[in-house]
Predict the structure.
Amino acid sequence: MPTDARCLVESDESSAVVRLSGLLEPTAVDRVRDALLARLSARPGPIVVDVTRLRATGDTAVRLLTELRRTIADWPAADLLVLDPTGAAVGSTDDLPVCASLDEATAALARTPMAALLTVDLSPTVGAARRARELVADGCARWGVPELTEPATIAVTEMVNNVVAHAGTPMTVLVAPRDSALHVAVRDHSRRPPAYAGMAPLTSTGGRGLLLIDTVARRWGSTPVPDGKIVWCVLYAEDEVGYRG
């Protein structure tokens, strides 16, 4: 295949825009998906995927971007917008927010709740969990969900301790509200996935971190990214109020 026909992924650290150009064939989907995941995991917040110069076979682009948006749906403050002025690459779909101009996409980015996002970079040391709890408690107080302080700090403690005990890499903790939920994530640089085997016997020792997260969060998961993973969970105030009531 000629070099200029290969799908290229171009991004600029000073901008939230990622440009796809060239021909996106099914054989290139995994590579392009990894490049977009790397960008999303390296810089918190939504991105605009510019497909103005992209050509795709069939519905390859639509399926790729739709699946990617679903993958990051529960990451704190993450989202994906598509810039497709002519509608040639993705057209119109209910699963993707499509903008017809860069001005429209920029305006949509300005409406995203990035101001509410809290992050901290931590080393894999014993004190990391304490700093993560402080960040989560600060967010719960700022956003008026004090009832989530306890379950969210439990969840983030287990996420961070898992990095300290098993990954041993620097990490980033991210916390953000969205609608009526609190989204918490820890991003590390180990591809080793967390293991969850369900309810542990009462006589067992250790290995209860993911069980605790599963208990306090409505949903949680782990997303592999090119140089590590993001473990995330979502908590709802209404669940905690109902539990305590």
About this structure: Residues 149-167 form the longest helix (19 residues). Residues 38 and 226 are 6 Å apart (CA to CA). Confidence is low (pLDDT under 50) at residues 197-207.
